[in-house]
Design brief:
The protein is of the alpha/beta class and 109 residues long. It is built from 4 helices and 4 strands; from the N terminus they run βαβαβαβα. Helices cover 39% and strands 18% of the residues. Strands 2-1-3-4 form a 4-stranded parallel β-sheet, sandwiched between helices. The radius of gyration is 14 Å and the shape is globular. It starts with 11 loop residues before the first strand and ends in a 6-residue tail after the last helix.
């Protein structure tokens, strides 16, 4: 049964962050604005989703994660599915990482 009064989904956003609190926060904000959200806690999970489904329109990608960092995930994502727009997210302002992310194909940092 369809929900009357609900907006159509604008786009699918893949949230990649190792913090459950950040995932929850971004999910809440985005879903309130009619985005579909898929949240994962690491780069490996994000790449698997893109490899098998390629359903994300936008990815919000944490820069600092254990294991595979966001820059490595970005590089692999571009090889897998370059049409996904990637926005890098970080609490650290590092000009070198910003330049690296943008040169790897990130749309914003």
């Amino acid at each position: 049964m369809a929900c009357i009064g609900r907006s159509a989904v604008k786009a699918t956003v893949l949230v990649v962050d190792d913090s459950p609190e950040i995932q929850r926060y971004l999910r809440t904000l985005l879903e309130l604005d009619s985005y579909r959200v898929i949240a994962v806690s690491n780069g490996h999970e994000a790449l698997e989703i893109l490899r098998h489904a390629q359903i994300a329109d936008v990815a919000l990608l944490d820069v600092q994660m254990p294991g595979m960092d966001g820059l490595e995930v970005l590089q692999r994502m571009q090889n897998l599915c370059s049409k996904v727009k990637v926005i890098m997210c970080s609490g650290v302002d590092d000009p070198e990482k910003v330049c690296q992310a943008l040169s790897l194909g990130a749309h914003a940092y």
